[in-house]
Amino acid sequence: MKSNAFLCLICSILMIFILIVPGESIAAASNSLNLWATSVFPSLFPFFVLTSILKQTGLTEQLIYNSSKKLDYNLVFVTVIGFMCGYPSTSKLIGQSDSINNPLPIYALSTSPSPVFLAGTVATVFLQNTRLALYLLFATYMSLFTSYVITKIICKKTVAGNRPPRPKVQHQPLGHLITTAILDGMKSQGIILGIITVISILGVFLEKVNAFSIIAVPLTPIAGLLGVPASSIPAFLKGLLEMTTGVNAICSQNISLYHKLAACGFITSFGGMSIILESLSFINEKIKATSIIGIKLLHGCLTFLYIRLLLFFFPVSQSVALIVESPHISPAITFLGACIVSVFILAAMRRIAHRET
User: How many CB atoms lie within 10 A of CB 277?
Assistant: First the structure.
């Protein structure tokens, strides 16, 4: 009830904001439409159609089921698709499946940014160094496997039977499969477009009322301890709303490559509120919002930790990028801080898991 009241308040404020500042609101909606049309739709829609066809036929899942008696075909199928396609393919598959008994570990293992986005967009376009993709990819996937093990230990939910039921193979006309897959993909893309548009308008509203600058004030001492300029905090806060915008803003800041890479790793693994809302839209209440937020925060912290470890043992060459701050003191402090935050997140997730079982 309280969450619905808060949601109604936010929607009312945004509606009034659109009426008061229509020009900037329309520009934000136009930018979100351009982002969706040039990046999201071309990269996701073909995968949505193809995975929908695979899911409808059931042949791929049955092949996985028959290949090993110990493998959970849902875990394998969803994880492979999630690694290939990135957000929010995993949530869509979990929401459509009727045979997943314990979806939280599957979500923890498979929900990630696509390797094309990490290597092509973040490393090559924003950080302008293709070799940094190795840091991002290794840290991201290690955080997924780590969070999967953690959630398997935390979630003691009893599951009936040792394996999910055998997947059914459905024989449907090719035309019906293609039409259903395209309509389902267009519906999913419409949901994604709507969420991106609302988040974009919310971001403009927060900038207009100087919310990012206000929130940055109490965070300034922490940033100073880490050797990060206070001017870069609003860029990081933007990334907590929308992943791509935040990563672009961080990479344009005058901070060291060490801080840029670690911040990009956290934001891409966390995904931003846009990705979390997309997950909630597709997951069909199979996982609660608190668990999804906890998993994504854990992903972000673990990726941050792994990147810091990689930079400690395999530092970036001075010929690759100019390091503004000393990489010897601040990584130790940030590593300790991220460990403490991760412990708190794990404790909170354990309490949430007990409530859901």
Answer: 21
